[in-house]
Amino acid sequence: MHVLIIGAAGMVGRKLCERITRDGGIGGASAGALDRLTLVDVIEPARPEGFSGQVTTQALDIADPASAVRMIEGRPDVIFHLAAIVSGEAELDFDKGYAINLDGTRQLFDAIRAAHDVEGYFPRVVFTSSIAVFGAPFPDRIADDFFSTPRTSYGAQKAMGELLLSDYSRKGLFDGIAIRLPTICIRPGTPNKAASGFFSNILREPLVGREAVLPVSEDVRHWHASPRAAVGFLLHAATMDLSGLEQRRALSMPGLSATVGEQIEALRRVAGDKAVRLIRREPDPAIVDIVAGWPRDFEPKRALELGFTADASFDEIIRIHIEDELGGSLPG
Fold this sequence. Notes:
Elements: E1 2-6, H1 11-23, E2 36-41, E3 54-59, H2 65-71, E4 78-81, H3 87-92, H4 94-119, E5 124-130, E6 142-143, H5 153-170, E7 175-181, E8 183-184, H6 197-207, E9 212-214, E10 221-225, H7 227-239, E11 250-252, E12 256-259, H8 260-271, H9 273-276, E13 279-281, H10 285-292, E14 298-299, H11 301-305, H12 314-325
């Protein structure tokens, strides 16, 4: 099996690479052993440790039309398309958002199409979409048949990517699935330009004794999943039977609906009052406005019926972060 990960230097891409190299493949022995890995990002991704198969790492700009052809030169069997610029940056830089999030996706799909037309190339394509494809006003819980009316450029770009994937799959050019990820929390590393970054910051930073800024009120409710759950979604999407999806190729993933206040109380239960006291309230009208247009809760029946699973509680999400990023215990 040959796997291509586009966006392999990002947090989810790195964790996905670690998981599939540790497991020796995706989908068990019946799916074939992993013997080739192509890792692509705007900066050259790190080579996985302990993997004996062939590895190709490339620093490519997916907004460049030539990059798409290079990415699929080795005809990967499974393509994980994770590359995007995040919501806040896509809103601030209109041209960059469309060049990467839309044009880069279309160019990838067209490169696959060209290879298909010549030699019958037909990979599985897993595209990471977002719950930002939905826009207010919302019902209490968003069902699978709720319409897509994004209120941000990022959401619009992801919605267009979903439509492209569904149409190219309908035409038999590749076997595609789009998974709408919840906001990933807790994201390791340092804060990025995502408008949703504070959901992770207010937990990640206090866990290691650092102050964090909360730019919204504690009654803000949102939809979350851990990085570990996100990797699980990707692997399941790469190996499941897609025939039951018909032309509805985009799925809202399961997750956990919680208010900021509930996040903070989970932090208190896991790490104590000292950690909670490191959260500083500092309202940011721009972030407040963006978050007001985001979904709060979902009823992802299709995904659950198809075998996708997520985290059970925010306490679990915090403990996963401690286990995966902090060596299993809080700093003394």
